[in-house]
Task: structure prediction
Amino acid sequence: MKKILVFLLAVLTLTSCAKNEDSSSTESLGRNNEGVSLIRLTMPSEPDSLDPYISTASDTEAVMHNVYEGLVLFDENGSIIPGLAESWEISDDGLEYTFHLRDDVTFHSGEHMDSADVAYSFEIISGLSTGEPISSRFSTITAIETPDEYTVILNLSEPNAAFLEGTRVGIIPEGYTDSATAPIGTGPYEFVEYTPGQRIVLEKNDEYYDESRMGSIDRAEIYIMSDESAIVTALQSGQLDMAQVTGSDAEVLNRNFTIHSNPQNMVCLFALNNAIEPFNDIRVRMALNYAINKDNIIYGAFDGYATRLDSNFSPVMASYYNSDVENFYPYDPEKAIELLKEAGYTDGFSFTITVPSNYQQHVNTAQIIAEDLKAVGIKAGIQLVEWGTWLEDVYSNGNYETTIIGLTGKLDPYEILVRFVSDFRRNFFHYNNGEYDKLIKEAMVETDENKRAELYKECQMILTEDAACVWTCDPNLVIAMRSDLKGYKSYPLAFTDLSALYYEE
Amino acid sequence: MKRYFSNPSFLIGSIILFMMLALLVISFFHTPYDVTAMDLANKLAKPSQEHFLGTDQFGRDILSRVMKGIEVSLLIGFMAVSSGLLFGLLIGSFSGYFGGRLDEIIMKIIDTLMAFPGVLLAMMLIAVFGNGLLNTIIALSVMAVPRFARITRSGYMELRDSDFVKAERIRGAGSLRIMFSHILPNIVSELSATASLSFASAIMSEAGLSYLGLGMQPPSPSLGIMLSEAQDYMLRAPWYVLIPTITIALLVIAFNLIGDGLQEMNGGVK
Result:
């Protein structure tokens, strides 16, 4: 026994030494040996690419958005604010976007930013110079004009109210081709180094044009770590200043760390295949909504770190969120039994919940749902599948009975709600409502922002009234930070805003 | 029998196994709580009088779940080892007794099977045929067959030309009779040691597969599932992780000790 203990101690010492090599400072004010203020944080996965036009991973974007900036930026409510463009006009037919650029922006390389850089960037983004747009949302760009040094006009082939939000994609210097290895942007932090499998290092951009968004901490080291227990250990031993943690770990860390818990614009749901029996009967779907206790899911599977949802929309997108859907189906097993009886399922029925095995929280949710449904006479079996199998069978082919999944957030309501349009390729719910399709199409070309919001609110109500799925919650993004680190801002999109953070002296 | 229990490995292994079997028998008739009944107000409760080993993340009683978990482990282990033994014995005895071209072909197949790590083989089978109780048992028995086939074959090859077999043959005994009433009893002790060791590895593999989500499916109480669920609560509820871990370890140690003991008494090299 003693030998084992000694061995364990030795292993622990060795591993902690290995980590210390990179970040030798654990001093109280987050300064390294040269007196430079430092923040050490984590990202859960390896960056897919540092090139903003190749990368699609949200983990990568959360970090690189500190380096790259677009014509527009977004604030904490997900609203669009001026970025590299200080203002813009949209023509009445929605086909011509005119951006007026700032004249005081320099790239990290020292070059001055003007319309030529933006034109060069958008030629790549739209595929006009490469033949292939970086995403289908940019395929409608037909021409890019630069009437003067600080004006850019983008011409579209068809109106798309969600287009403006897309122009937050990063701008790079004209003619620059090394973004994948040495990213150059205009953001408040500049890229220093990337060691694959280990970390990304960023440093404050002292030449940043906007005082209010200027960074305070000199250097940021972002470690690629996904193991939850390793992250907690690193936080507790002072090797990390800030990290994303699970709700369960937050319950332990909250004694010594500041915990920030905010909805992250994700939609977790118990998805039903609306095309098959018995889920093609609205009474059955409503019964399921009444039979499931969402508070139990939030407490049992997310330790309370989640926000209840009743439609396919997170309240974090405040300007588009319809609060009328809240508690539309309160927990009421009696009513569920009644509805099932009405639908002709007096003895209940049985079905399978297909759950991706790599998400323990979804597996836990499934178990709570199965237990709740048992109480109203429905037998739900759980089938764990690998992520790849889930993507193929459920997401791509829509071949399943029910599943549990989290839909990642988008900044534009169209991209969130389009998942339920009947002819959308990934409508794996097989939801089909002509009125819903019509409203979404209307909203797509509606340029009046208020009318557009109204349409999206109506769409959320339709989904809830139809009980298309059982929406459960938006799991909060839980961040643990050392207690002297302040200024944390949360966004409805993956973005770790380094410039907002500062140490309290 | 006394000879067996004077061997310390065998004795300790048997005692542990006996305790586990006692829990198993009790679990048939009674568990303190329903294994799937949730009580969220009581989640992750420390061991106490109401919940002897505490509760899990849904407030389910861990003791009840471990009792049923042992049942699952032993059931799967038993089914996998016995069918592995049966097929291994048949394949190995024919292959070893008759030799020749048949033996060559069979042994090439067995070698191919053995070239894959056992769990990988089981994972492949489950990926193709889907998960669940029956498929887990089938996968684990396929995993066990090669080991039994090899041991049986070598036993038969050694004995098929020995004097007592020749004598039987001259007396006119048929091949099947020689194989199963004369040669088989001579390798039973070796097979039983292997069976015990295979039992240990079957329990481990089942826990491993369930841990990966490939074996038993939640909410059924497999020790592997408990372990994978518990790891998220390592800091808050360390006992929750420890209990299934210790149970798996005890089961595996018990069968390994018994297997070792049997081998020692057979004059094995161990």
Q: What stands out?
A: The radius of gyration of chain A is 25 Å. The first helix of chain A runs from residue 2 to 20. The interface with chain B takes residues 228-229, 232, 246, 248-249, 251-252, 296, 299-301, 357-358, 360, 363-364, 366-368, 370-371, 374, 381-386 of chain A (CB under 8 Å). Residues 267-476 of chain A form a domain with the Dipeptide-binding Protein; domain 3 fold (CATH 3.10.105.10).
